[in-house]
Q: What sequence folds into this?
């Protein structure tokens, strides 16, 4: 499905920084060689993943097009419209270049499925 990407600025009262948000498709991924690469317990930002509980990190991967908008390693984001995965997450991984307008939640292997459309992510 085609997902529209939009960028808008939420202006504060002069004391608050401008917040950048965008709309994406969100999916899940596991720390496995089949879904990542041979060094599957290390993110693209060189963070080490706890193999017994990857979900505890609250880390996401972002598609490369989002990096141009400021969604880069180490940035915290607020995620909405992703059900129980809503909340504050940190960008620590990068998705394959074939993906655009997309994020991946790093989750435990007990969670088998997850896909959400029109998920809003906002830089904090």
A:
């Amino acid at each position: 499905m085609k997902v529209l990407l939009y960028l808008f600025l939420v202006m504060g009262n002069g004391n608050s920084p401008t917040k950048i948000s965008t709309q994406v498709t969100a999916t899940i991924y596991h720390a496995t060689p089949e879904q990542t690469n041979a060094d599957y317990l290390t993110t693209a930002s060189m963070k080490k993943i706890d193999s017994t509980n990857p979900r505890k990190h609250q880390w996401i991967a972002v598609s490369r097009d989002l990096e141009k908008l400021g969604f880069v390693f180490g940035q915290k984001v607020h995620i909405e419209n992703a059900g129980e995965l809503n909340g504050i997450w940190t960008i620590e991984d990068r998705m394959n270049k074939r993906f655009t307008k997309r994020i991946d939640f790093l989750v435990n292997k007990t969670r088998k499925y997850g896909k959400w459309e029109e998920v809003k992510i906002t830089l904090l």
